[in-house]
Amino acid sequence: MNSQRLKRGLRRFLCAGLCIVIVFSMFGYTSPVRVSAAPLSLTNPGFEDGMEGWTLVVGSQDQVTIDSTIVSEGLKSLKIADTSKSASYMVESNKIAVNEGYKYTAAAKFYQKGRTAGYANISLVFYNADHALIPISPVAEATATYLNNAWTDLSVSRNAPDGAAYVSIRLATTTSYVSEGAYFDAVSLDEDSDDYNIAESDSQAL
């Protein structure tokens, strides 16, 4: 008797599992595609070739130089000597083609000495096919800590908004920032389609 009940229970369990598979098949459900983040090619990410691939968009060129005394990787780094509370500085990388909805992560090594006020940051900015800046809110930026005399990691992520065709990285100091030197090195940009593929799979299942 117990053996017959066990067999009947097993048959019911198998039938229930088969029904679930059929239902998901009818609604077109597919498992999310998992794709690892892939590094994108930035021009001169470690400033080994001076300012090639980077453009000064805010501030005086005299205060933005290539340094060989404080480096994280390689032989050189970018130095911003922001010693005035009334000035700010920003450099921007070359533009990289993007896919709408994909997640992009910018990262860099950061070092500062003699910081007394304000902060430095890394940010992502997106452009449309006509190279016009796409406003995004909140701004995609990561702020450096107040730590002096040590290399730290900065990183920021954002999904490419609708209409985005390009992305670039900005390295900057704010107007209130004051230090003997802010150093950036080993900049990188990764593309991750995981979030996009999961969202697509979910929408197909509805």
Features:
single chain; 206 residues; alpha+beta; 7-stranded antiparallel beta sheet; 6-stranded antiparallel beta sheet; 2 helices; 18% helix; globular; disordered C terminus
Describe this structure in words.
The chain is α+β, with helices and mostly antiparallel strands. Helix content is 18%, strand content 36%. It is built from two helices and 13 strands; from the N terminus they run αβββββββββββββα. The chain has helices at 2-26, 194-205; strands at 38-39, 54-58, 64-67, 77-80, 89-93, 96-97, 103-113, 120-127, 133-134, 141-143, 152-159, 166-173, 181-192. The strands form two sheets. Strands 2, 5, 6, 8, 9, 10 and 12 form a seven-stranded antiparallel sheet that branches. Strands 1, 3, 4, 7, 11 and 13 form a six-stranded antiparallel sheet that branches. The longest helix has 25 residues, at 2-26. The two termini are 44 Å apart.
The main pleated sheet reads as: 7 strands, antiparallel
Q: How many strands in all?
A: 13
Give the helix tally.
2
Q: Fraction of residues in helices?
A: 10-25%
Run of helices and strands: HEEEEEEEEEEEEEH
Low-confidence stretches: 13-35, 197-206
- Cα radius of gyration in angstroms: 25 Å
Mean pLDDT: 84
The fraction of residues in strands falls at 35-45%
Q: What structural class do you assign from the helix and strand content?
A: alpha+beta
The 3D shape can be described as globular
End-to-end separation in angstroms reads: 44 Å
